[in-house]
Write a structure and sequence with these properties.
- The protein is globular.
- It contains five helices and six strands.
- It is an alpha/beta fold.
- α5 links the parallel β5 and β6.
Length: 153
């Protein structure tokens, strides 16, 4: 909607547009957000990991979702840039294959080294992943999710 409104110099205020794609003010000169960008969320999650002293975390994201993929890549880049914590398991998962998701959860559980798990997924994929966690009795990690997961629904 924003590109169309920009043609007529009409401001567009978004309460949901967090993607870093919207950071380019040349492409979106009249788009204003009420939420921070995904890059700010990545920094906040990384700050939490550092604050609690977790040296090893796992990172998972839905594989068939653009938002999740971008968050996954931004977080990987942040980990490399900060050098204060490492990623144990880092993998994208299919929302269509519960068995494959359960295998991923088993892998995270069997390694047992990561203290926290960062999840990038829309609500249905997050529910599917949490279902796999429950089925595999993954209870000893702290789950950090992005706002894109909309877990309030």
């Amino acid at each position: 909607v924003s590109p169309l409104l920009s043609v007529f110099n009409v401001p567009h205020i978004s309460y949901w547009a967090s993607s870093t794609l919207f950071d380019d003010t040349r492409d979106y000169p009249f788009l204003f957000r009420t939420v921070p960008s995904d890059a700010s969320q990545v920094d906040a999650i990384a700050d939490l990991v550092e604050h609690f002293g977790w040296s090893l975390v796992s990172l998972v994201a839905a594989e068939d979702d653009e938002y999740s993929g971008r968050g996954f890549e931004l977080m990987r880049a942040a980990v490399l840039a900060r050098e204060t914590f490492c990623l144990d398991v880092q993998q994208r998962f299919s929302t269509r294959d519960l068995n494959a998701t359960r295998l991923l959860v088993r892998r995270i559980k069997s390694r047992g080294r990561a203290r926290a798990l960062i999840l990038y997924a829309p609500v249905l994929a997050a529910q599917r992943f949490l279902e796999a966690c429950a089925l595999e009795n993954l209870t000893d990690v702290i789950l950090l999710g992005s706002h894109g997961s909309s877990w309030t629904n």
